[in-house]
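Lay summary. Proteins are chains of building blocks that fold into shapes, and those shapes determine what they do. In this project we predict the shape from the chain. Here is one chain we studied, written as its sequence of building blocks.
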Amino acid sequence: MFQGCYGGSQKHPADLDKVLDRSWQQGLQKIIITSGCLKDVDEALDLAAKDGNTPTCYMIFPLIEWLTPSPTERLFTTVGAHPTHCSEFLPDPEGYYSQLQEKIRSNPGKVLAVGECGLDYDRLHFCDKPTQLLYFEKQLQLAEEFRLPLFLHMRNAAEDFLEILERNRDRVQACGGGVVHSFTGTLEEAQNILAFGGLYIGINGCSLKSEENAEVVRQLPNDKIMLETDCPWCGIRPSHAGHKHVSTKFATVKKKEKWTPETLVDGRCEPCQISQVLEAVAGLKQEPKEKLAEIYYQNTLDLFFKKDQN
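And here is the predicted shape, written in a compact code that computers can read:
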């Protein structure tokens, strides 16, 4: 989408450089690019190596952003296989795993987490359940080996998800825990995740759609929340329960063909919109956004940037 191409049709010039510039101008200091397969990893590492001074010919993957202390390093990535991509292991499981290992081993300054890995039972047409189960668990070994936290995905699979984590509790503890990103589950599921220990819950626009979603977010403890956008997906739409609390507005065009370098495209989320997620959560909790920003900032440092704090 940040190439100006939608559904195979070119609507406007590639604008990744403009998207990143807008992010830095909005105050973001670091962005984590989430990879979902080996191809993603290669392109994400290439993008991260250019540190924001990127030509516009690169794909951009779902982004999760948080503020962190130093502006000298701004782009990072995860390494792993999304549940919908786990079938990529099948032709050569050990070979695929070895390549994931090598990507982490060769990029110690840029790889912050293992993932995006987990279970997605809403999209079994992309990858069947047995394959997802097998290679989710396999990637927990990867996290343990490199002592990297987990960037986790869970859709309509809470029971099996937690069962695998429980079976691998020692591994999860050894890697430092993780975050269950883009959470849309029930309050009971959230409570079970937090009761496991060492896990955070990631909140974005998809977490704020319905009144039920909003109530879950309202009840989550602040010391276990992280904010994200998961762009170009998961923006906060006017129909979302959290939208009424959003005060920051960006110049936006509804028709993609009307794009300009200074405007967002309606329906295409950008990293700069993380401020809107903060405002929505603060509104739901009726707490000052400045206070929450400090807490969520520290949560992120504690999981992904421990070395920077030592």
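What the prediction tells us: The chain has a mean pLDDT of 91.
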